[in-house]
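P.,

For your records, the input lines for the assembly:
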Amino acid sequence: MAAPKKTPDRHYDFTSMNKWFAWSSLALLLITVWMIFEDYAKPWKRFQAEFRELERQELAQEAEAERQRIDQDEIARIQAEIESEEARLDEQRSDLDELQDRLADLDDKVYEADVDARTTKSHLDTERFSYDVAQQTGDADKIAAASLAVDTRRATYQENRIALEAFTEQRAQVKAEIDRKMAGLSEDQAQLIALQGGLEALESRVADLGKGLDYFLLNAPVMDMLEPNLRIDQVQLTGLYQNINFTTVDRVDRCVTCHVAATRAGFDEEKWEEPFRSHPRLDLFVSSSSPHPYTQFGCTTCHGGLDRATDFARAGHSPESEEQKAEWKHEWGWEKQKYLDTPILPAKYSEAGCIGCHAGNVWTPSSTTQDTGRELIMRMGCYGCHKIDYPAYTDLPRSGPSLERVASKTNPAWAYKWIEAPRDFHPTTWMPHFFFQENIEGELNEERQRAEIRSVVAYIWDRSEEVSYPAPPRGSSDRGETLFDTVGCTGCHLRDDEANRDDYYPQFNRMHGPNLVRTGSKVDPGWLFAWIKDPKAYNPETRMPSLRLTDQEAADLVAYLMSSRDPAFENLTLPEVDGEVRDELVLTYLQGTQTIEQSRATLGSMDDTARDVYLGQQTITKYGCFGCHNVAGFEDVKPIGVELTEEGSKPIHQFDFGHIHDVPHTRQDWIKTKMLQPRIWDHGKETVKDYAELYRMPDFGMSDREAEAIVANVLGFTKESVVTARRADQTPGAAALANGRKLITRFNCQGCHLIEDIGQAIKTSITDPGLWPPNLAAEGARVQSDWLFEYLHDPGIESMRPWLNVRMPTFGFQDGDVNTVLSYFAAREGRDAFLSEPGRPDQRDLTVGQGVFAMLQCAKCHPAGPVDTSAGVSAAELAPSLLLARDRLRHDWVDDWIKDPLSFVTGTKMPVFFSQLDDGSYSSPLAQGIDLPMWRGEKDRMLRHFDSEAELKEYLADAEKVTAAMRDHIWWGLKRGS
Amino acid sequence: MEAIKSLINFLSYPQWSFTLSLVLFWLAMRSKLLWTKAGGWVLLALITLFFGLAMLDPNFFVVVAKPDNVPIVMMVYLVGFFWWFAMHKAHENDRRIADGEPTFEKSESEDRIFTWPDLVFSEFICMVLLTVGMVLWSILLKAPLEEPANTSVAPNPSKAPWYFLGLQEMLVYFDPWMAGVVLPGLIIVGLMAIPYIDTNKKGNGYYTLKERRTEIWLFMFGFLILWCELIVIGTFLRGPNWNFFGPFEYWDVNKVEPLVNVDLSELIWIQILGVGLPSNFLLREIFGIVFTGFYFLVLPVILIKNKFVNRFYQDMGPTRYYVGMTLFLTMMLMPIKMYLRWFLNLKYFVHIQEFFLNL
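C-alpha cells returned:
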C-alpha cells in the first residue's frame, strides 16, 4: 500500500477512502440484489409458471377444436335474427328510451329511499337504547321523553319503508315492461351464448393465462405482496396432527404449490409429467367428492414428508431406486434430508400411509399390497416374536401347530430333518429356516447347530404326550383323491411338490394349512385317521375343522394322503452330535446365571439326556419357537423380538447396517433387506461376535414382492396420531367389521367363500362353477341371524344345496366367534342383526304370489325336494331350496332380492325380471305376460280376488307389489314336504 | 499423504497435542521472528495451507464445513491475528523503550484525528463491508436447522454452544460440580480480581512484553491453551459419544475406547500398598486430602522460598500473593489433572461420594 498522503487536517487519504466507499457501496448494492433474487426465485414459482404456459397451450388447442366444432351457419342465422329484432325495436325506440329513462330515475329513487330507511332504522335502534338508559335512571320525565323519541322515529321509519317498497314495485313494473318489449332479442342472445359460451369461456381462460404486463408486474419482487398469480397454495388440516415430539401441531400442506394439477382431473400419465399430473384414482382420493378430499386430508397425512416445504429436496421425496436417486440429484438437486424423521413414502410403499386411519379396519378398503402384507404377517406369524399393537395382530392364536402332543404324530428323526430345513420338505411352508444361515458358517458352528436342533427335538419329545392310535381301516386311494379334490380340503391345503408360494401372490388361502405332499413320510397313519375325523380331539385349539367324514371317507383320504412319500425322509436316524460341542453350549448358558466353577459342577451332575433337554430348553428360548408353537413349559414366556408397533417412526440411526454398504440408509431398505436376508447385518462380524450374540431372525424364503408387501405395513406402524373423529376405523360398525375380518382370516373362510370380492381359492380344484361354495356378498342382508347362528354351530343340520360335494365344515366355534361373524355380516350391510316376525298377508297377495312364482318358473332352479343331478340338470343351474326360506332368509330381503339381484351380488345366476327405470323405480313385465295363453289358469285364479282385469293388471304392473306377493308366497305358501 | 494424515491424527490425541501446544506456546512466546510482519505472513500462510490441504480430506471437510463450525474457523484466524498484532506491537514498543523512543501509542496520541470525516467515514465503510460479508454468509451457508427436538433422541454428539465447549471439555476431567460450577465461577472471579492483584503498574495503555512478561505468559496460557484450544478440540476433535477423533478420522458412532478410571485412593491403597480400601472415608481418601491440602495450603508457602516467586511476594504483599497463588494453582489443576488422566487413568484425587465431594 502506498504511504497515505496526509493533509494537515486529514488522517487518511481521502481519494483512496472515496474509492473504498464507492467499491464497497457497489458491493452492497450487488449483494442486496442477489439477496432479493435468492429470496424471490423459488423453484415452485418455476413450476407454476411452466404449468401455466402448458395449460394455456392445452386450452388454446381445445378452443381451436371448439371453434371448428361450432356451426357457423347457425350463428349467422341467429345473428341475422338479432339484427332484424333490433330493427323492429328501433321502430319503437322513443318508447323504449322513455322506459329506460324512467328505470334509471327509479333506480335512483330506490337507492335514496333505501338509504333513508336504513338511516332511520339505525337511529331507531339508538333511541331504543337511550330509552333503556332512561329507564335505569328511574326519572319519569326522561323516560317519557325517550319513549316519545322512539315512537316518533318508528313512525318515520314506517314512512320510509312504505316509500321504499312503492319505488321498488314501480321499478319492477318498468323493468318487466322493458323485458317484455325485448323478449325476442333476449331469447336470441341466450341461444347465441349457449352456442358460443363454451368457446368464449375457453378463450377468456386462455387470455387469463397469458403473460401480459400485468403478469410481470403482479409477480415482480415486492409487488408480489398484492395479488400474485404465482403463490403458495396451502391447506390447514385441523385435527390431523403431526408429532414434533414435545407437542403436536396441525399439518399445513403445501404440496399442490408444485403439484399444481394433483387435485384436478384430466392431467393423466400419458400426456403429463410430474409435477403436473392428476392424482391417481380421483374417485378415491383428493377430489372433493372422494372419501379423502384434499381440503380435509391434505397430502402428507398419507404420504409423509415435510408438510410446509416448498422445495423438492426439503419436502423429503424418497427415490424408489438408485437410478431415480441419481436422476433426481442431477435434475432437482435432491439430497437426503437427514433431519426429517418422516420422509415421503416411496410410491410402492405409499399404502403404508393408510394405516394411520385404517389400522383397526384389518382390511384397508382398496389397498392391495398392504392387505397382502397383513395376510403374510398373520400367516408367517411375525406377531409371535414381535409385538405389534394393532387390532389385526393382537389376540391371535399362535400361527404354527401345537407341539404338546407331537410325539403321537411323527418321529424325532423326521422332526430333526424338518427343523434343519423346512422348505426341503414342504416347498411352500411358512415355517422359516433358523439354521445353517449366512452368519453361522464354519465347521464348529455347524456342529453347534446340529447339537441345538437335536436338543430342541429332545426337549419337545421329553415334554410331549404320546398317544398311540390303532391302524386305520383300509381305504381306496383313488376314492380318497376324488374326495380330497371335492369335499373341501383344497380350500386350505395344497398337495403339490412344484408349488411356489410366490405363484399364489397375492392370496395365500390354499397355504392356510400345510402342503400335503410327502405326508406319508411324515405322519403316523393311525394318527392321521383320528386327526381328520376329529381334529379337536388331538388339539382343542386347532383351526382345522371337521368335515364330518364317515369312517370310510376318512380311510380313503388317509390312503390317498399316505400315498405321497419321499424316501429321503424315511427310515431316518438322529445324527450323532459331538458331545463336547454340546457341553460347551450348555456351559455357556449355565454361566449366564452361575459362576464358571458352579456351571462345571452343574454340567457334571447332568446325564446325557438332561444335557440335551436343558440345551433344548435354552435353544427354544433363544430362537423363540414358542412364538408360533404351543410348547410345553413356555406358556407364558414373552416374545423375543423387537416390538414393531412404532417401527415406522424409529429414527434411522437406530437401525444397524453393520458393514453392509450397498443398502441405502432408509427404513424401507433396511426392513426389506432384513426380510430377504435376515442375518445380513452380521456380515463381517461373524467371528467377533459371540455365538449367542449373532442375529437369530429366521429366513422365511420371501420373494421380493412379499417382502415389499410386508414393508408396506411396517412403515405404517408409526407414532403419528390422528384424532379419533378423523379415523376411519372409529366409525360405527368398524369394530364389528374388523373383528369379523380377523376371524375370517383366522379360519380362512375365503378359502371357499367369496367375501368382500376376495377368495374362493378352492375354485382351482373344482371346475364346475355350479359346485363352488357360495359367494357371501350381502349375506347380512340375506339370512336371519338366528338361523346363521345355528348353522355355524352345526352346518351338518341341513343343506340348502344338497347337490354340492363340498361341505361346509364344522369349526367348533365358540358362541363369541359366531356372534363376531353375525355382527360382521350385519355391519357389512348396515342392517340390524335381528328382525321382528312379519304379519300374515291376505289371501289375494298369496294367490298372486303363487301365480307369479309359477309364471317366472322359480321352481326350475330352486328345487323343492331332493335333486337328481343325473337327470340332466346341471349343478350350475341350481339354486338353494326355498323350503328353508322361512327359517333362513330375512323377510325384508326376499322381495328386494327378486326385484334387483344384481345390486346385491354381481354376476349372480339369478335372472333379472324387473328392470330399473331412470327414476329408480322398477317396471314389471307381468301385466303383459299374464295374457299369454299358457298362463290362462293362473290368470283365472288371480282374477277371483280382483274386481276387474284392469285392476289385476295394475297390480301386476307394480313391481313392488308383485315382488312382495312373491315373498309372501315363498314365506307362507311353501311348506316343507309339499 | 495417508501416512502424514495418520501421523497428524495420532499427534492430535489430547495427550500429545496438548503437550505439543505447550511446547509451541513456549517457543512462540520466546520467539522474536514470529512477531515480525514476515513472521505473521508465514503464520497466516501456514494455517491457510493446512486448512486448504486438509479440506481435501472428506472427514475433515465434513466437520470443518458444517455451518455451525464456520465461526470457529474464523475464531482461529481472529485469535491468531490479534495475538500476532499484540505481540508485534509489544516487541516494537520494547525496542523503542530500549532505544529511549516514545511508544506507538504515545506517538499516535499526539496525532490529531478528526471525528468527521476521518473516524465516521472509515467506520461507515467498515459497516458497509461487514454488511456485505454477513449477507454473503447468509446466502451461501443456509441456517443449520435440524429436526424438531426430541426428548427420547439426544443428538450425538451433544455439544454446548461453541463458546462453552471449553467448559464441556473440562467435564471430561472433572466432576460436573467442579467443571460446571466451581471452576467457571473461579474464572469469572479471577478475571475480576486481576486489577486488584496486579501490582505491576507498567504496560498501562501500551503494548509491551518485556515489562509484563510473567503476567502476559500467565494470561495467555489460560486464554490460549486452556480456553481457545479446548474450544477447538471440542469443536473439531470431539465426535459421537464425546469420543476423541483425529482431524482426518471418520466420526464413527460405534467407536469404543477402553475406559476404566481409578481414584487416587484405589491407586495407592490397592495398587501400590496392596491392601484393601479402608472403610472410613476420611482414611480412605487421606492421600487425596493430604495432596490437596499440600497443593493449596503448603505449596504457596514453600514457593515463597523460590527467588522468582519471592519477587512477586515482596511486590504484592501476603494477601494479594495468596489470593493470586490460589487462583493460579486452581488453573494449573486443569493441566495436572489432564496429564494424570491420560497417563494414570486417574478419576478423582478425592472421591467422597458420601458427600458428593469429588475433586
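Two observations worth noting. Chain B has two domains: 2-111+159-242, 264-358. The longest strand of chain B covers residues 351-352.

Regards
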